[in-house]
Amino acid sequence: MTMTEGDATGDPLYFSVPPVFQEIDLDGDPEERVRRSFERFGAALEGATPEQCGSLTLQQEVMIGELLEQGAIYAATCLVRTEDEPPRLSTAQFTVCVREANLDGERPLMALADGLRVPGSPREVAFAEFPAGRAVLVGDEADVHLPYTVDGRNQPQSHRVRQAQVVLPLPGNRRIAVFGISSQCLPEWSYYAAMLDDIAYSVSFTAPSEDGGSPITAVLG
């Protein structure tokens, strides 16, 4: 079991993540995290040069800084090779962020969904029921300009990045947990979306039974 601790008096949040995702240590020593990430990219990317692995590691560090500003309590990266011929690298990022929210009123989720909608944009907003309660679903796409390709080559490109989020109110309706997945590898999108759905179904605010595996626990302050 992996635990990210906040205030010990906070509410626990349990969820399970597929083993294909590798957790990013958000609170660890940056130098140690950089070393481990560099080694991990080198092992996963056959033939990658030290410069390519270093570029990917740097991009990850920039991303971590942004996640911490957004209230991230958990982050993980999926780094796999497809079964194509020849195989290619496919990546996705999974995050959990906790944000303040004031969900008062008779239909608080409806108000939240209305706030997430952007007129004229391709963003989709819907609702779904999960064991942890009713949630807002958000789907979006955006063009992202990166100086490197997904395997670290110095070749500026514009990528279409797709992301999906499951927004669940926490007990008390004063905060929301945002479970999100994003990827520029669109051919595998249905695979990643199914992973997010499985994670959302695993979310609980009470300790699961012992035979339910080893969930990740975030104690929220």
Automatic annotation (TrEMBL):
Taxonomic lineage of this organism?
A: Bacteria, Bacillati, Actinomycetota, Actinomycetes, Pseudonocardiales
Q: What is this protein called?
A: Uncharacterized protein
Domain of life of the organism encoding this protein: Bacteria
Species assigned in the record: Haloechinothrix alba
